[in-house]
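Example record

One chain of 136 residues, shown exactly as stored in the release files.
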Amino acid sequence: MAAAGGSPMLSDDLARGFWCECWAEDLRAPGGPTVTTSFGAYSATQADGWLPTALRAITAELNPIAPKETWDWLYESRIDTRRALLRSEPCTASVTYASTRITWTVHPVLFLPLADSHEAPELPAGVRDFMPQATD
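Predicted structure tokens for this chain:
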């Protein structure tokens, strides 16, 4: 179904938000990056707050005397990140220390109502009929 302008209509059940991920990569080892943490933010402000908080915490562990590039990003580039998030644009920030690269990504998403277990007050009727049973 399309709206008057030709764009798909969104269900009232879908919630706009941002999917935030933190990736770690050992540049000396093959295999590529792995996700170390992720979460769903329900506003640009929440996503924008997560990125520098995670950046501060992780860089402090990697190097107690945080490199200049980290703090430059926090104080000079953060406004650009916030503006991009308010426009629902994806954002990425990366820092590299020795052989470790940490990358934070934030992407606009639509959250499905069934995917959010915090808002589901109870399971639908009959669902327990399909639950795994203990075996002897």
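Notes: The chain has one domain: 15-111.
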